[in-house]
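The following record pairs a protein chain with its ligand, shikimate-3-phosphate.
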Amino acid sequence: MRLMSKSKGLLGELVVPADKSISHRSVMFGAISHGTTTIHNFLKAEDCLSSVAVFKKLGVSIEEKDEVLTVQGKGFEGLEQPTEILDAGNSGTTMRLVMGILAGRPFYSTIQGDSSLNKRPMERVMGPLRQMGAELTGNQKTEYPPITVKGGALKAIQYQMPIASAQVKSAILFAALQAKGETTVIEQACSRNHTEQMIRQFGGEIKVEDKKIQLTGNQKLTGQEIHVPGDISSAAFFLVAALLVPESSLCLRKVGVNPTRTGILDVLKKMGAKITQTNEDTQNQAADLLVESSTLKACEIGGEIIPRLIDELPILALAATQAEGTTIIKDAQELKVKETNRIDATADELNKMGANIEATEDGMIIHGPTPLHGAAVDSHGDHRIGMMLQIAALLTNEAVELTNPEAINISYPDFFKDLNQLIKGRI
Ligand code: S3P
C-alpha cells in the first residue's frame, strides 16, 4: 500500500479511539462481576473483539446496542467450560489476563493465538499461576501457546515481579480474586494500573502502596457503567505527527491521561515539544491535548519511565530521528517480545528510510536529525510499527510502500481515515 506522503500541516481536532487496555478489562470485569455492566465507547478493534469472543465462549452474554456494550455477569462461578478452543487472536492482553481468570475455574480449557501471539512468552504468567495452584501446559511442554489450563482452588502468594509487566500483574490479580487469603504482588516499576482501579470501581478492595499491591480473594464484584477514555497510545501517533510536520496544530480530545500511561508526554516535553493539557475530566482521567509543530532535541529514555511509555517507543524513536543530538533508549528489552521484535523492526524499517538507528540489547541509539526518504517498508504484522511508518512517510515527498498495512486494524481501524482528515493542503 502506498502511504500518504509529505503534508503541509496537520490541522483540526480529533477524538482518538477508545483505550485498548481499559476496553479489554471492562469486558473481563463485567464477565466476572454480578449483574449488568454497560460499556460506553468500547474499542471495536480486533484485539478487544478477541476478548469479547473469548468470554462469549465462556458462556457470558455480551450484546451491542446503540454503541453500548452490555455484559451480563454471573460472577467467576458463572463462567462455563468452553466447548471449543479459546482464540485470543493477536492479543497478548486477552491471553495473559484470561489465563489468570481461568486459573481459578474448576475446568479444562485451551487458549491459543495467531502466529505472532503463539511465539510470545507465557512462562511469566504460568509460573506465578502454578505457584497459586493452577496447572498450565504450553504447546509441546513449552511456554508457548496453545496453553491448556486446568484451574481449581487457588492459594494466595507473595510475588516479587521479575519484569515490569501490567499483563503479568493483572493475571495474578485476577487469580488472586479467586484465591484463599491475601496475595501480595511487588512490582519492579509501576506499570499501568487499570486492573487495580477497576477492582475498586467494581466494588472490591485492594491496597496499593507504591509498588506493593495486596488483594484478598473471594470478594464480590458488582457490574458497573463504564466510560472508556481515548487511548493515549493511539493519540501518540498524531502527537508526534503534529510535532514533526511543519505548520501543524492539533487538538486531540478526551485522551486518557492516567499517570501510569503518560510517560510519552513527559519525554516529548523534555525534548522541547509544545503540548498543553486542557479540559481535564478528573472522573474519567481524560483531557484534551493541544500540540503544535516543535523543534526537538535528543534525550535519554530509560529506567522507571519505561513501563509508562512501553507501547510508545516506536513512535518516540521516529521523533528522535528528527531531534538534534543522540537519543538513547535503554532498559526496554521487553520491546523484543511484543507483537514483533519492536527494537529490530523500528531500527530496520526507519533505517531503510534514511534514519541512523543502532539497535541495542535493551533499546536503541538514535542519531538525529536525519532527513527521511522513500522506501519499501514492512509493518511486520505489528499495528504500532505500521502506524509509526505512516507518520514517517509524512516527512518525505517520495513513495513509501507499506507491506501488511491491515495489522493496524488490531487497535485502530480508522487510522488512515482520521489521518487523512487532518492533512490539509497536501503537496
Ligand atoms: C498492556 C500491557 C503492556 C502493553 C500492552 C497492553 C495491558 O504489556 O505493552 O500493549 O493492557 O496490560 P506488558 O504488560 O507485557 O508490558
